[in-house]
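Technical note accompanying the year-one report. For the benefit of new consortium partners, we illustrate the data format agreed upon in the data management plan: each record pairs a sequence with a structure-token string. No post-processing was applied to the example shown here.
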Amino acid sequence: MADPAWRPSPRARALWAVNAALMWVPPVVAQVVWGVLDAGRPGLHVSVAVATVVLGGVHIAVVPLWRYRVHRWEISDTAVYTRSGWFTQERRIAPISRIQTVDTERGPIDRWLGLATVTVTTASSAGAVQITALDTATADATVARLTAIAGRDGADAT
């Protein structure tokens, strides 16, 4: 089977970069507090700060690009296909006949960037399938399409 064809929105890279940057705020704040409370070892503080800047910079710059290259999704008349991850990659296939609910989620950063995540809940022990970082219009159209396809079957997916 071929990989899913569609990428998330190009703004997904900005979303993932902002989320990565926010992860680095607590370590930076902790280092500032540590530097103020323990001013007797400036060499150690500088070394740790340089390591933080390098690691944080790589995380903020590389991970969003890598995730954008990996993340894919597609919907057919029979299934929802996703591929996600950046270090560990996961492929999920959810048959349309197993769909129970289709939800849209927009967090504050998502709304700021005009993005949304579509969550397809199925009768599966593996959990829901998520299609992340879609343009809002694409997410709305995807939900409408999935609802229409799932409604054609008329069977209960429980």
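Partners are asked to follow this layout when depositing records. The helical segments are 12-23, 25-37, 42-70, 108-113, 136-153.
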